[in-house]
Every structure is written in C-alpha cells, then in structure tokens.
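Thread title: Can someone regenerate the structure for this chain?

I was given the following input by a collaborator and told the matching structure tokens would be attached. They weren't. Posting the sequence so someone can regenerate them.
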Amino acid sequence: MPLLGPIIFRTEVSFIENVLSTIRGGELFVYCAALVGPLIYIITKRYGEVENKNGRFTLAIAFPHGVAFVLFSALICVFAGFAFSLMKNPIFSAKDAGIQLNLTGIFWASIGVYIFSLYCFFSASAYRNAMTGFVQNTHVEEDIFSVEWENRSDGK
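Best answer:
Regenerated them for you:
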C-alpha cells in the first residue's frame, strides 16, 4: 500500500518520494526474495528428479542452468533477509548507535539485487516456456484464430 497510497489518497508526499522512501526502508529486499523464492519450486518441481545413487539421494536438475538458478535464488533470499533484518534492527537503525549503516550503499545494493532478481525471474520463465513448448502452442492457436477470422470476414 505504500506505493499505491498517493494514487488513491490525497497526500502531501509525491509518488516518486514515496517510492524512494520505500526503497530506502529496505522493502525492495523483500520484493527480491518474493521474486526469486518461487524459482526454486518452479525449477525443481517439474524438471528435478530425485535419484538414489549408492544409498544417497541426490537431486538432478535438467532445467537449463538450473543449479545456478537455485544457488542464486538461495543466495538472494539469504542476502535480502539479512540486509532487511539489519535495516530494521533497532540497534543499527538508531541515530546514536555505535555502528552506522551506509544507507546510500544499501539503497543502490537493493536496486541492483532487485534488477538481478528480475533478470533471474525473466530468464527462468523464458526457459520454462521454451521447454514446455509454450511458443509453439501459442503459434498454433494464433494460426487457428487467424483462419477463423478470415473465414468469418470472407477474407476481406
């Protein structure tokens, strides 16, 4: 609601100021974890297989760059959780605390991690769609629609 507040309600704070204060507050780290967290499920649900080799269970991932996606997702979730908890910890967020956080660095780090999270989400979605034949199925449906439309309008 912090981003939609100025759109719905009349406030003294502009939309851009509200977005910047949200990023400064560390909420972008929460969005990062929310974006890449489900990627582990998407990658391992359909394309991961549990194998039993020599009495040990291992997870074989057939998804393109699947291991890298799982590792990056886990690292982003841990880093985002750690950074967000540091920012919200009253020991570090107080003005008179002995240890001060570099808020400018955290601001730009959150933007960078968010852009990387978006890239990972887009790449995993594109790989998944390519593996499931989404583009080919959609193309067939478009062809059927085009033929039906031309027949309906008598080719005019």
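The mean pLDDT is 76.
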